[in-house]
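Researcher: Please predict.
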Amino acid sequence: MPLRLHDTLERRLVDFSPLDPNGPVTFYTCGPTVYDYAHIGNFRSFLNADVLRRTLEFLGHDVRHVMNITDVGHMTDDAVADGGGEDKMAVAGKRLLEAKKSGSLPDGVELDPGDPGAIADFYAAAFVEDARLLGLKVVEDADTEPALMPRPTRWVPEMIALIERLIEGENAYVGGDGAVYFSVASFPDYGRLSGNSIEALREGQGGRVSATNQAAKRNPADFLLWKPDPSHLMRWASPWGEGYPGWHLECSAMAQGLLAPSEGEHAGQIDLHSGGEDNIFPHHECEIAQSRAASGAERFARYWFHTRHLVVEGEKMSKSKGNFFTVRDILAKGATPAALRLELVRTHYRQNANFTLQGLRDCGRMIDRWCRLDEQLAAGRVVPGEGPGPLEAALGGFTEAVSDDLHLARAIGVLSEAVNVSRLDDAAVSGDAARAATERAALRKMDEILGVLDRNTAIEPDADNDLATTVESHIAARAEAKANKDWAAADAIRDELSNLGVAIKDGPDGTTWTRIVE
């Protein structure tokens, strides 16, 4: 069954077909910037990319999947094409230096805040650990081929070579400030992905441009490729002075270097590129311009796949609101990786998703039912009957749903209905081992996309999770104080939690908490 997928560039559903029908699907995903723990909103985008990859494999494609680990050049104001503010790795260094001074670094963490490589290594390892728990297949691939999770700091020579090609082709120039900029006027399709015209960008409408160094540019919308800055925390020698690359340039160099053929009909092109919708402009718009200008190809990525935003309990995630969660925050509350994975992907990727603790519990109960049936089938216990069993019969409807632009909610409904039909009472036994094996194979086949059956175990808390136990006991004591109308005690407990670096929020489903990160 062919996959129908919404292409952001075309703004419509299209039939997916790879550039090379005999080769692997080439797939690039914009990964995390490793200056902090990735939050569940980040992971919604990464997991939807994983679902797309799994669906392609489910439908018979081989997939070569790359996800970058950004460790330089991503600025705090990334809505500006130039990248404004500070490098996020420098921000991480300042944050960790303050934590070190106050003695609030997590137990066992010894970092030199002035060493961005050590900071990147620490948070990259944390990301890989979280991603492995949630079942991102690209992490498994990178165990045997580390190049599939590249870091920009190891690709600087390729970025410099790419800039040189762009300058040679008159798509880039050295500005009045010595920095190298991409000339958007040299690329007529600039703005096609996001819908931003160069004229609107010049006037500050429809997208943002940097308000600094405009005199150094030919066009206010021109964006940074290389910034000479001998004071920057991370810097390299280049023909334009010691400095660092632009964030957008990094993904162009790595995607083309690891996935795109260097010659032939499809030179410089890949099949798929994914990210969150906040990547559309400026990041992916700039990637397209650089990549196509360097290769001369009509497309950079054949299809663009973007996941919409995540809110928590109906509100935008915010540390000040106490609804900002990392994967570790959620797992510390006793949720299984399976439940978290399902809660983050079950809403269609082109709709904003509302993460709720009740939804997380509902996902956990649903997966529990699937797992119990899996155990029954593994033991040879099955609903007797003639012809295909409920799960085998459901496989067609499940496949049709995921092939229709990854309609997971419909696919989950098909599976759940089949599971309900298949459930046995504890006393029921069937000796039809062949039927049980066929039914279990169908269940496991559907789980190739969902990826939850083998992840339905809560993570045992370790020493670093002692905080979770402390917080939960404080919350219970506060609830008791409120029940006794001892408001002073309840307020005192809230203050104690704040001193521990924890924010709490009362809601209809109880009190939630998260760590406060400055």
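Model: The CA atoms of residues 248 and 283 lie 5 Å apart.
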